[in-house]
């Protein structure tokens, strides 16, 4: 699947973001290895700490549908600028796609794809616990 298609899907789901506090809408399109795409938007809460990012919404939807292997995730924000995933989302993505990549979008600069490992060097893995 082309990055452009994933970005288009992320823009579409961004419209469903629930962001009455920050007004910063984010959309994410997560491409699974089986070709399915899971979409997510940010869901804010009056108790700010309960806010869920678009990336984690997409991952949670996929895992709850029995899908755990992903190739890449496209992320767009209503600012039109690159919106790199926050630290928590980087770690959550690393759990399921350590070899995956992150595609960002900017209205002026276009798309930017980077390996997740570059965004989260030495990320923590479950096997490190053993
Ligand atoms: Zn996040």
From TrEMBL:
PROSITE patterns: CYT_DCMP_DEAMINASES_1, CYT_DCMP_DEAMINASES_2. Its EC number is 3.5.4.5. The keyword Zinc applies. Keywords: Hydrolase, Metal-binding, Zinc. GO terms for molecular function: cytidine deaminase activity. It catalyses: cytidine + H2O + H(+) = uridine + NH4(+); 2'-deoxycytidine + H2O + H(+) = 2'-deoxyuridine + NH4(+). Its cofactor is Zn(2+). Gene3D superfamilies: Cytidine Deaminase, domain 2. Belongs to the cytidine and deoxycytidylate deaminase family. This is Cytidine deaminase. It comes from Anaerotignum lactatifermentans.
């Amino acid at each position: 699947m082309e990055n452009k298609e994933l970005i288009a899907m992320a823009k579409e789901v961004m419209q469903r973001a629930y962001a009455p506090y920050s007004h910063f809408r984010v959309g994410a399109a997560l491409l699974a290895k089986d070709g399915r795409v899971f979409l997510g938007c940010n869901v804010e809460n009056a108790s700010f700490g309960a806010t869920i990012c678009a990336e984690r919404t997409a991952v949670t939807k996929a895992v709850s549908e029995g899908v755990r292997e992903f190739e890449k995730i496209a992320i767009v924000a209503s600012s039109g600028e690159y919106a790199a995933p926050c630290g928590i989302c980087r770690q959550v993505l690393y759990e399921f796609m350590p070899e995956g990549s992150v595609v960002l979008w900017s209205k002026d600069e276009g798309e930017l794809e980077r390996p997740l490992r570059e965004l989260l060097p030495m990320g923590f893995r479950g096997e490190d616990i053993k």
